[in-house]
Protein backbone atom coordinates (compact mmCIF):
# COMPACT_ATOMS: atom_id res chain seq x y z
CA UNK A 1 0.00 0.00 0.00
CA UNK A 2 1.29 3.43 -0.95
CA UNK A 3 2.01 5.63 2.07
CA UNK A 4 1.77 9.40 1.91
CA UNK A 5 3.47 11.99 4.08
CA UNK A 6 0.84 13.82 6.12
CA UNK A 7 2.08 17.37 5.84
CA UNK A 8 4.90 18.10 8.28
CA UNK A 9 3.47 15.92 11.05
CA UNK A 10 6.01 13.11 10.68
CA UNK A 11 3.06 10.75 10.17
CA UNK A 12 2.53 8.66 7.05
CA UNK A 13 -0.88 7.37 6.04
CA UNK A 14 -2.36 5.25 3.28
CA UNK A 15 -4.28 7.25 0.63
CA UNK A 16 -7.64 6.60 2.29
CA UNK A 17 -8.79 7.02 5.91
CA UNK A 18 -11.63 5.05 7.54
CA UNK A 19 -14.45 7.29 8.77
CA UNK A 20 -15.38 6.26 12.29
CA UNK A 21 -18.63 8.24 12.37
CA UNK A 22 -20.50 4.99 11.63
CA UNK A 23 -19.26 3.26 14.81
CA UNK A 24 -22.06 3.22 17.36
CA UNK A 25 -24.48 4.44 14.70
CA UNK A 26 -24.96 2.25 11.62
CA UNK A 27 -22.31 -0.26 12.76
CA UNK A 28 -22.46 -1.91 16.19
CA UNK A 29 -19.35 -2.95 18.11
CA UNK A 30 -18.99 -6.43 16.61
CA UNK A 31 -19.50 -5.16 13.08
CA UNK A 32 -17.11 -2.26 13.68
CA UNK A 33 -14.35 -4.58 14.92
CA UNK A 34 -14.71 -6.68 11.75
CA UNK A 35 -14.63 -3.60 9.52
CA UNK A 36 -11.49 -2.27 11.16
CA UNK A 37 -9.80 -5.67 10.92
CA UNK A 38 -10.60 -5.88 7.21
CA UNK A 39 -9.49 -2.28 6.57
CA UNK A 40 -6.14 -2.66 8.34
CA UNK A 41 -5.57 -6.14 6.90
CA UNK A 42 -5.83 -4.53 3.44
CA UNK A 43 -2.87 -2.27 4.25
CA UNK A 44 -4.64 0.92 5.33
CA UNK A 45 -3.52 2.44 8.63
CA UNK A 46 -5.62 5.45 9.69
CA UNK A 47 -9.03 5.91 11.28
CA UNK A 48 -10.82 9.22 11.88
CA UNK A 49 -13.25 9.87 14.71
CA UNK A 50 -14.33 12.63 17.13
CA UNK A 51 -15.40 12.88 20.74
CA UNK A 52 -18.91 13.84 19.60
CA UNK A 53 -19.46 10.69 17.48
CA UNK A 54 -22.18 9.42 17.56
CA UNK A 55 -24.18 11.70 19.88
CA UNK A 56 -26.92 12.21 17.27
CA UNK A 57 -28.17 8.65 17.73
CA UNK A 58 -31.05 8.37 20.22
CA UNK A 59 -29.67 7.05 23.52
CA UNK A 60 -26.07 8.04 22.73
CA UNK A 61 -24.19 10.85 24.44
CA UNK A 62 -20.97 11.04 22.40
CA UNK A 63 -17.79 9.04 22.73
CA UNK A 64 -19.32 5.84 21.36
CA UNK A 65 -17.06 5.78 18.29
CA UNK A 66 -13.88 6.38 20.32
CA UNK A 67 -14.93 3.67 22.76
CA UNK A 68 -15.37 1.14 19.95
CA UNK A 69 -12.00 2.06 18.43
CA UNK A 70 -10.38 1.72 21.84
CA UNK A 71 -11.91 -1.71 22.33
CA UNK A 72 -10.72 -2.76 18.90
CA UNK A 73 -7.19 -1.50 19.56
CA UNK A 74 -7.06 -3.51 22.79
CA UNK A 75 -8.31 -6.80 21.33
CA UNK A 76 -6.77 -6.60 17.85
CA UNK A 77 -3.28 -7.58 18.93
CA UNK A 78 -1.79 -4.89 16.69
CA UNK A 79 1.10 -2.76 17.87
CA UNK A 80 -0.04 0.76 18.72
CA UNK A 81 2.18 2.28 16.03
CA UNK A 82 0.37 0.29 13.35
CA UNK A 83 -2.66 2.57 13.69
CA UNK A 84 -2.84 6.32 13.11
CA UNK A 85 -5.69 7.50 15.34
CA UNK A 86 -7.28 10.84 14.46
CA UNK A 87 -9.86 12.42 16.75
CA UNK A 88 -11.31 15.87 17.37
CA UNK A 89 -12.35 18.26 20.13
CA UNK A 90 -14.68 21.23 20.14
CA UNK A 91 -18.17 20.03 19.23
CA UNK A 92 -20.79 20.43 21.93
CA UNK A 93 -21.22 17.48 24.28
CA UNK A 94 -23.20 19.38 26.91
CA UNK A 95 -23.11 22.56 29.01
CA UNK A 96 -19.49 23.70 29.51
CA UNK A 97 -18.35 20.74 27.40
CA UNK A 98 -17.54 22.35 24.07
CA UNK A 99 -15.19 24.75 22.34
CA UNK A 100 -11.44 25.16 22.27
CA UNK A 101 -10.59 26.69 25.64
CA UNK A 102 -7.55 25.42 27.50
CA UNK A 103 -9.82 24.12 30.28
CA UNK A 104 -11.99 22.05 27.96
CA UNK A 105 -9.15 20.76 25.78
CA UNK A 106 -7.31 19.52 28.89
CA UNK A 107 -10.41 17.66 30.08
CA UNK A 108 -11.54 16.44 26.66
CA UNK A 109 -8.18 14.92 25.72
CA UNK A 110 -8.14 12.84 28.91
CA UNK A 111 -11.67 11.63 28.16
CA UNK A 112 -10.68 10.69 24.61
CA UNK A 113 -7.50 8.91 25.73
CA UNK A 114 -9.50 6.88 28.24
CA UNK A 115 -12.11 5.86 25.68
CA UNK A 116 -9.44 5.04 23.10
CA UNK A 117 -7.49 3.03 25.69
CA UNK A 118 -4.20 4.59 24.60
CA UNK A 119 -1.59 6.96 25.99
CA UNK A 120 -1.44 9.16 22.90
CA UNK A 121 -3.50 10.49 20.01
CA UNK A 122 -1.65 10.63 16.70
CA UNK A 123 -3.55 13.60 15.28
CA UNK A 124 -5.79 15.86 17.38
CA UNK A 125 -8.04 18.29 15.49
CA UNK A 126 -9.99 21.39 16.43
CA UNK A 127 -13.40 20.32 15.14
CA UNK A 128 -14.88 23.79 14.57
CA UNK A 129 -13.68 27.38 14.95
CA UNK A 130 -14.41 28.79 18.42
CA UNK A 131 -14.96 32.57 18.24
CA UNK A 132 -15.17 32.74 22.06
CA UNK A 133 -11.59 31.50 22.58
CA UNK A 134 -8.43 33.29 21.39
CA UNK A 135 -6.41 31.16 18.98
CA UNK A 136 -3.32 31.69 21.18
CA UNK A 137 -5.06 29.96 24.09
CA UNK A 138 -6.01 26.97 21.96
CA UNK A 139 -2.54 26.57 20.45
CA UNK A 140 -0.90 26.98 23.89
CA UNK A 141 -3.12 24.18 25.21
CA UNK A 142 -2.01 21.98 22.32
CA UNK A 143 1.63 22.90 23.00
CA UNK A 144 1.24 21.41 26.47
CA UNK A 145 -0.29 18.21 25.11
CA UNK A 146 2.47 17.87 22.51
CA UNK A 147 5.19 18.35 25.14
CA UNK A 148 3.50 15.76 27.38
CA UNK A 149 3.41 13.26 24.51
CA UNK A 150 -0.37 12.91 24.74
CA UNK A 151 -0.73 14.20 21.17
CA UNK A 152 1.72 13.72 18.29
CA UNK A 153 0.37 16.36 15.88
CA UNK A 154 -2.42 18.92 15.67
CA UNK A 155 -4.73 20.18 12.96
CA UNK A 156 -8.11 21.77 12.37
CA UNK A 157 -11.35 21.04 10.60
CA UNK A 158 -13.76 23.47 8.96
CA UNK A 159 -11.47 26.53 8.74
CA UNK A 160 -11.66 28.89 5.78
CA UNK A 161 -8.54 30.38 4.20
CA UNK A 162 -8.61 33.51 6.35
CA UNK A 163 -9.00 31.56 9.58
CA UNK A 164 -6.20 29.15 8.69
CA UNK A 165 -3.90 32.01 7.63
CA UNK A 166 -4.57 33.80 10.93
CA UNK A 167 -3.88 30.64 12.93
CA UNK A 168 -0.59 30.05 11.09
CA UNK A 169 0.48 33.68 11.63
CA UNK A 170 -0.36 33.57 15.34
CA UNK A 171 1.59 30.34 15.77
CA UNK A 172 4.63 31.86 14.06
CA UNK A 173 4.44 35.14 15.97
CA UNK A 174 4.00 33.51 19.40
CA UNK A 175 6.33 30.57 18.88
CA UNK A 176 3.43 28.13 19.25
CA UNK A 177 2.79 24.86 17.36
CA UNK A 178 0.84 25.36 14.16
CA UNK A 179 -1.96 23.42 12.60
CA UNK A 180 -0.24 20.87 10.35
CA UNK A 181 -3.39 19.24 8.93
CA UNK A 182 -6.68 20.55 7.59
CA UNK A 183 -9.87 18.52 7.36
CA UNK A 184 -12.26 20.24 4.95
CA UNK A 185 -15.52 19.08 3.39
CA UNK A 186 -14.58 18.18 -0.18
CA UNK A 187 -15.94 15.99 -2.95
CA UNK A 188 -16.91 16.20 -6.61
CA UNK A 189 -20.04 18.19 -5.72
CA UNK A 190 -18.73 20.30 -2.80
CA UNK A 191 -15.59 21.89 -4.23
CA UNK A 192 -16.03 25.63 -3.79
CA UNK A 193 -15.02 25.96 -0.13
CA UNK A 194 -11.66 24.20 -0.55
CA UNK A 195 -10.60 24.72 -4.17
CA UNK A 196 -8.92 28.06 -4.72
CA UNK A 197 -7.39 30.15 -1.94
CA UNK A 198 -7.63 27.51 0.79
CA UNK A 199 -6.18 24.73 -1.35
CA UNK A 200 -3.39 27.02 -2.55
CA UNK A 201 -2.54 27.92 1.05
CA UNK A 202 -2.38 24.28 2.11
CA UNK A 203 -0.07 23.43 -0.79
CA UNK A 204 2.19 26.43 -0.14
CA UNK A 205 2.43 25.69 3.60
CA UNK A 206 2.81 21.91 3.16
CA UNK A 207 -0.31 21.24 5.21
CA UNK A 208 -1.71 17.73 5.11
CA UNK A 209 -5.31 17.54 3.91
CA UNK A 210 -7.82 14.83 4.82
CA UNK A 211 -11.24 15.40 3.27
CA UNK A 212 -14.59 14.53 4.86
CA UNK A 213 -17.96 13.85 3.21
CA UNK A 214 -15.76 12.59 0.37
CA UNK A 215 -18.75 10.78 -1.17
CA UNK A 216 -21.17 13.64 -0.49
CA UNK A 217 -22.91 11.70 2.30
CA UNK A 218 -23.23 8.70 0.00
CA UNK A 219 -24.73 10.56 -2.98
CA UNK A 220 -21.71 9.89 -5.18
CA UNK A 221 -22.20 6.14 -4.77
CA UNK A 222 -25.04 6.54 -7.25
CA UNK A 223 -27.64 4.85 -5.08
CA UNK A 224 -29.62 8.06 -4.49
CA UNK A 225 -31.17 9.40 -7.67
CA UNK A 226 -34.64 10.47 -6.56
CA UNK A 227 -36.42 11.48 -3.38
CA UNK A 228 -37.91 7.99 -3.27
CA UNK A 229 -34.41 6.55 -2.90
CA UNK A 230 -33.94 8.57 0.32
CA UNK A 231 -36.83 6.92 2.14
CA UNK A 232 -35.67 4.74 5.01
CA UNK A 233 -32.03 5.80 4.70
CA UNK A 234 -30.21 6.93 7.85
CA UNK A 235 -28.41 9.52 5.73
CA UNK A 236 -31.32 10.47 3.50
CA UNK A 237 -31.89 13.90 5.00
CA UNK A 238 -28.35 15.02 4.22
CA UNK A 239 -28.42 13.82 0.62
CA UNK A 240 -31.49 15.70 -0.59
CA UNK A 241 -29.56 18.87 -1.52
CA UNK A 242 -27.55 16.94 -4.12
CA UNK A 243 -30.62 15.88 -6.11
CA UNK A 244 -30.42 18.81 -8.51
CA UNK A 245 -29.30 19.23 -12.11
CA UNK A 246 -25.64 19.60 -11.22
CA UNK A 247 -25.73 16.49 -9.05
CA UNK A 248 -27.34 14.49 -11.83
CA UNK A 249 -24.74 15.69 -14.34
CA UNK A 250 -21.93 14.55 -12.03
CA UNK A 251 -23.59 11.17 -11.60
CA UNK A 252 -23.95 10.95 -15.36
CA UNK A 253 -20.19 11.26 -15.90
CA UNK A 254 -19.52 8.82 -13.05
CA UNK A 255 -21.89 6.38 -14.76
CA UNK A 256 -20.02 6.75 -18.05
CA UNK A 257 -16.61 6.16 -16.46
CA UNK A 258 -18.00 3.23 -14.47
CA UNK A 259 -19.18 1.67 -17.72
CA UNK A 260 -15.77 2.23 -19.32
CA UNK A 261 -13.63 0.98 -16.41
CA UNK A 262 -15.81 -1.55 -14.59
CA UNK A 263 -15.26 0.41 -11.37
CA UNK A 264 -18.13 1.54 -9.14
CA UNK A 265 -19.20 5.18 -9.01
CA UNK A 266 -18.03 5.56 -5.41
CA UNK A 267 -14.62 4.12 -6.27
CA UNK A 268 -14.23 6.60 -9.11
CA UNK A 269 -15.30 9.55 -6.93
CA UNK A 270 -12.74 8.60 -4.28
CA UNK A 271 -10.02 7.92 -6.85
CA UNK A 272 -10.57 11.44 -8.22
CA UNK A 273 -9.92 12.92 -4.76
CA UNK A 274 -6.91 10.65 -4.17
CA UNK A 275 -5.38 11.89 -7.43
CA UNK A 276 -6.06 15.55 -6.60
CA UNK A 277 -3.06 17.76 -5.92
CA UNK A 278 -3.42 19.28 -2.46
CA UNK A 279 -5.15 16.26 -0.90
CA UNK A 280 -3.37 13.65 1.21
CA UNK A 281 -6.32 11.28 1.59
CA UNK A 282 -10.11 11.27 1.62
CA UNK A 283 -12.10 9.86 4.53
CA UNK A 284 -14.71 7.25 3.64
CA UNK A 285 -16.89 4.97 5.74
CA UNK A 286 -18.09 1.41 5.32
CA UNK A 287 -20.71 -0.66 7.11
CA UNK A 288 -19.99 -4.07 5.57
CA UNK A 289 -17.08 -6.07 4.17
CA UNK A 290 -18.12 -5.53 0.54
CA UNK A 291 -17.83 -1.79 1.06
CA UNK A 292 -14.37 -2.20 2.62
CA UNK A 293 -13.31 -4.16 -0.47
CA UNK A 294 -14.64 -1.29 -2.58
CA UNK A 295 -12.50 1.17 -0.58
CA UNK A 296 -9.47 -0.98 -1.37
CA UNK A 297 -10.29 -0.84 -5.07
CA UNK A 298 -10.71 2.93 -4.97
CA UNK A 299 -7.20 3.32 -3.55
CA UNK A 300 -5.80 1.12 -6.32
CA UNK A 301 -7.79 2.72 -9.16
CA UNK A 302 -5.76 4.94 -11.48
CA UNK A 303 -8.01 7.15 -13.59
CA UNK A 304 -6.89 8.29 -17.01
CA UNK A 305 -6.09 11.98 -17.48
CA UNK A 306 -9.06 12.17 -19.81
CA UNK A 307 -11.43 10.75 -17.17
CA UNK A 308 -10.07 13.12 -14.54
CA UNK A 309 -10.58 16.07 -16.87
CA UNK A 310 -14.19 15.05 -17.53
CA UNK A 311 -14.81 14.90 -13.79
CA UNK A 312 -13.08 18.25 -13.28
CA UNK A 313 -15.21 19.86 -15.95
CA UNK A 314 -18.59 18.51 -14.85
CA UNK A 315 -17.92 19.34 -11.18
CA UNK A 316 -16.61 22.89 -11.64
Automatic annotation (TrEMBL):
Record-linked InterPro entries: AKR_Detox_Biosynth, NAD(P)_OxRdtase_dom_sf, NADP_OxRdtase_dom
Keyword Oxidoreductase: yes
Keywords attached to this entry: Oxidoreductase
Ranges for domain NADP-dependent oxidoreductase: 15-314
Keyword check for Oxidoreductase: yes
Molecular function (Gene Ontology), one example: oxidoreductase activity
Gene3D superfamilies per UniProt: NADP-dependent oxidoreductase domain
Alphabetical list of SUPFAM superfamilies matching this protein: NAD(P)-linked oxidoreductase
GO cellular component terms, A-Z: cytosol
Protein name: Predicted aldo/keto reductase
Amino acid sequence: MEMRRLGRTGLSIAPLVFGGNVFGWTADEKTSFGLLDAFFDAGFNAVDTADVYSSWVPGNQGGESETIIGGWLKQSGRARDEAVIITKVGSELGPERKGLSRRWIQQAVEDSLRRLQTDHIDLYLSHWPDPQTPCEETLAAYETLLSQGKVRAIGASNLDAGQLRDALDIAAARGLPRYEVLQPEYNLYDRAAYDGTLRNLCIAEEIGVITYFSLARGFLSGKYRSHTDLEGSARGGGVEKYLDGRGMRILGVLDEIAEETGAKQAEIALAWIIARDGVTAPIASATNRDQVESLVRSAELKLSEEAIQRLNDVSQ
